[in-house]
Amino acid sequence: MDLDLAYLEAAMPDPVVLLHQDLRPYSLGHEMLLRRHGSPFVTHARAPELADVYTGVFICYHLFEVANAELAKMAVNSREFDANLVAWQELVVKANGGPVSDAQELELVSEFHRYVSEGSKAPRFRPIYSGGLRTKPGAPFLALILRTLTSVYHFTQSEALNTPYGWAQWLYLVQAEQDRRARIVTPDDDDVRTAVLAEMKKRGLEPIIVKEPPPAKEEA
Asked: How far is the C-alpha of 31 from the C-alpha of 161, rounded, in Å?
């Protein structure tokens, strides 16, 4: 894996057009909104359907602030949103020459899934242990990323929320590396690890896997 190329692709993702809409780069805010509204593309609670694609495209066509405001209005009064959705669906049907077939629906689901997956890519990393066992943060990962972008990199909240999600994760891990809390895995690391594991196997040895103990129960 070329880390330089992976970083640039995360910071400057390829444009995506879906359902006749130019999608913005998949952002931290898009990830938050899809999770907030239970999109199966990020929750994986069920198989996505065409309606989920329309909702996802609607969110990812807009900046975070606009999408969030529109979804809030829809929750109060969905008439205008429903009318716009019907007009949009009619445009898709007209351009498609008829209703979306089952095969086309599957392709649209796959394309949006690919957009989310590619936009969420982050480098592999290994935690750095500074004595004792590693303590995981209690804060949600998305909150940690947002805090890092605003407090360390001095993005405005709007800039942070509209930052490509993959790039946001890169920036978070770069800072974690500077703080010696983690190290981004390089191709050289993989080569060394493969060589060490091969040598251990040759000698009949097994790597030791350190597991974190379960949290202690609070006494009454």
From this structure: 9
CB 164 within 8 A of CB 26: yes
The helix or strand, by DSSP H or E, that contains position 149, with its residue range, turns out to be none
Element (H, E) at 146: helix 141-147
Distance CA 164, CA 83 (A): 30
Return the higher-pLDDT residue of 96 and 217: 96
Q: Tokens for 72? A: 């809030």
The first and second tokens of residue 177, run together, are: 């590396």
Give the pLDDT confidence of 73-105 residue by residue, as tens digits.
887 777 777 788 888 989 999 998 999 999 999
Tokens for 71? 């979804």
Chain segment 106-158, per-residue pLDDT in tens: 999 999 999 999 999 999 998 887 665 666 788 999 999 999 999 999 999 99
Cα–Cα separations (whole angstroms), residue 202 to 105, 189, 193, 205, 206:
50, 20, 14, 8, 10
Query: Of 17, 37, 18, 21, whose CA–CA distance to 29 is shortest?
Result: 37
CA 170 to chain centre: 11
Distance between CA atoms of 108 and 100, rounded to whole angstroms?
A: 10
Q: Which residue has the tokens 């970083």?
A: 7
Stated pTM of the model: 0.82
Domain map (residue ranges) of the chain: 3-119, 136-202
